[in-house]
Amino acid sequence: MTTAGVEPAVAEWVAAHVPGVVPPLTFDLVSGGRSNLTYRVTDVSGTVRALRRPPTGGVLSTAHDMSREWRFQTALAPTAVPVPTPLAYCADASVTGAEFYVMDFVDGTVGAEQDAVRDWPERARRRAGTSLVEVLAALHELDPAEVGLGDMARPRGYVERQLHRWQRQVHRSGAPDLKLLDTVHDALLARVPAQRTGIVHGDFRPGNLSFAPDGTVIAVFDWELATLGDPLADLGWLVSTWEQPGDTVPPTTAGPSAAPGFCGRADLIDAYAKASSVDVSQLPYYVAFSRWRSACIGAGVAARFAAGVMGENELPVQELERQVLRQSEAAYEAVGDLGGL
């Protein structure tokens, strides 16, 4: 996989624990970088499965929890929320240097950027917007206790926990000049709205979804940030990533939504409000929080690249820092719109 001598041990474990596997196996990296690594695992019969494990370096100590991904996917597999079928979990880090799990391989289009949907007809793009809202609403309508996740509830409010977590991490990252982020943090903390509790994916956006050719969502990936909290956090994050033509504020992360055929943010929110029982009146707060969180994550990433602990990046550190500043300013402006400054 990523370390010499590891593949045989992993192949042996997979063959012993995943029913129907026919060795020998081949491993090919599908996606990697700063998120968890996904490998295509092909056996001699041509059957393909997927293996997920943490990245190999330059990561935060609280990130990339394989057991969390596994537990959420296992809980959601019988529900209407489409997830890859979980097959086997390895808690023995000695096999490959980290815990990992194996799941079915879902062969669809991941909507990470406009190039991914370039060949889609506009009707498929319209369907993608509708479908992802349907899936998000279905996730948020689930009762955590009924799917076996009730014991993950925390006594402290979700927003307060998130503000504390990302504030602590960005300060530990070595990022310089955090005054603006600290100002936004304090304003958000002083204005936390009343919260409800549901299942929160934590990074719900087209780049973590697999789509069928007609635009229907067929799988939700990357559950490493999943928790119990206010569902509006997911919708706020999705809206903050949802670029549309004419925007002057950059999205928190790249996506395909500015391509012709995708709905705008207002239509996205309206569709969610109709499909869900969640009150969206406090959504502007969660959009502001999402922009602040994005800036915290970006500041930490830029700091680790500047320190030389994450290898090379396709963008220079100065450009990463410029993007962080723009997101920090956008978060500041969003909090100001709430009357928070």
Written overview of the protein:
There is one protein chain. It is globular and about 60 Å long. The chain has helices at 6-17, 66-76, 122-141, 158-172, 179-190, 232-241, 265-275, 283-306, 317-337, and strands at residues 26-31, 37-42, 48-53, 86-90, 100-104, 109-110, 198-200, 209-211, 217-220, 227-229. A 5-stranded antiparallel β-sheet has the order 1-2-3-5-4, with helices on both faces. It folds into 2 domains: 6-104, 2-Layer Sandwich (Phosphorylase Kinase, domain 1), CATH 3.30.200.20; 109-337, Aminoglycoside 3'-phosphotransferase, Chain: A, domain 2 (Alpha-Beta Complex), CATH 3.90.1200. The protein has 341 residues and is α+β, with helices and mostly antiparallel strands. The N and C termini lie far apart (50 Å).
Produce the secondary structure layout.
Blueprint: H1 6-17, E1 26-31, E2 37-42, E3 48-53, H2 66-76, E4 86-90, E5 100-104, E6 109-110, H3 122-141, H4 158-172, H5 179-190, E7 198-200, E8 209-211, E9 217-220, E10 227-229, H6 232-241, H7 265-275, H8 283-306, H9 317-337
Antiparallel strand pairs: 1-2, 2-3, 3-5, 4-5, 6-8, 7-10, 8-9
Helix pairs in contact: 3-7, 4-5, 4-8, 5-8, 5-9, 6-8, 8-9
Produce a short descriptive summary:
The chain is α+β, with helices and mostly antiparallel strands. It is built from nine helices and ten strands.
